[in-house]
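agent> Task received from the user: take the single chain below, predict its 3D structure, and emit structure tokens. No templates, no multimer pairing.
agent> Plan: (1) validate residues, (2) run structure prediction, (3) serialize to tokens, (4) report one or two observations.
agent> Step 1 OK, no nonstandard residues flagged.
tool_call: predict_structure(input=
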Amino acid sequence: MDFHCVAKDVLAFRNKRDWEQFHNPKDLAISICLEAAELLEIFQWSGVDVEVEAKQNKIKEELADLLIYCIYLADCVQVDIPSIVSEKIKINENKYPAEKACGNARKYTDL
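)
tool_result: status=success, residues=111
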């Protein structure tokens, strides 16, 4: 499914419920952080267990919530998500040239 179709469906869902009136950048940013914390909570106290198979459904649910709030925030501040992601990839290509960053987890300042 195309991103713009998904975003359109997300916004239509919101609009049918007249929730846009409750959405402002501050509250949406808070909601993004809260949903990200709920995603992280799935892995809390898991020790070295990073297996996700048994947690797949909960991961999908929390990731969807997180992405929905990102769409709401992007709409609220009038930015196009595919465009800003594309721009960020270009910035990161300069920060992390493949010949230096490939297989390396160091920050760009340490490459």
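agent> Step 4: summary for the user.
The first helix runs from residue 3 to 16.
agent> Done.
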